[in-house]
Amino acid sequence: MNGGNAHSSSGQGSKRLFLGVQFVNCGAYGRLYKNREGTAYVGGCPKCGSKVSIRIDPGAGTSARFFKYYCPM
Ligand SMILES: [Zn+2]
After folding, report:
1. What is the pLDDT of residues 23-68, one digit of tens each?
2. What are the sequence ranges of the domains in the chain?
3. How many CB atoms are closer than 10 A to CB 47?
């Protein structure tokens, strides 16, 4: 490889970019993607459009990668 030293060092490809979420009330599944600040995973229910955001705890590094969400109906 002869890449120049101007190569961007950001953007780790090995980090998980989204979480799975089950919308229990709606019987649907979806994904939450990291927001621009990297502070939370955000997304919405594909059926009712409810917004979901799960804050990323910088210290704890939660091992959970699948969440259940109960849409307010
Ligand atoms: Zn829903």
Report:
1. 999 999 999 998 989 888 999 999 999 999 988 877 765 567 788 9
2. 18-69
3. 13
CA of 36 to the centre of ligand 1 (A): 24
What secondary structure does DSSP assign to 4-56, as a single string? -TT------SSS--EEEEEETTTTEEEEEEE-TTSSEEEEE-TTT--EEEEE-
* 8 A C-beta contact, residue 41 and residue 19: yes
Residues measured by CB to lie within 5 Å of ligand 1, the ion:
23, 26, 45, 47-48, 50, 71
End-to-end CA gap in the chain: 55
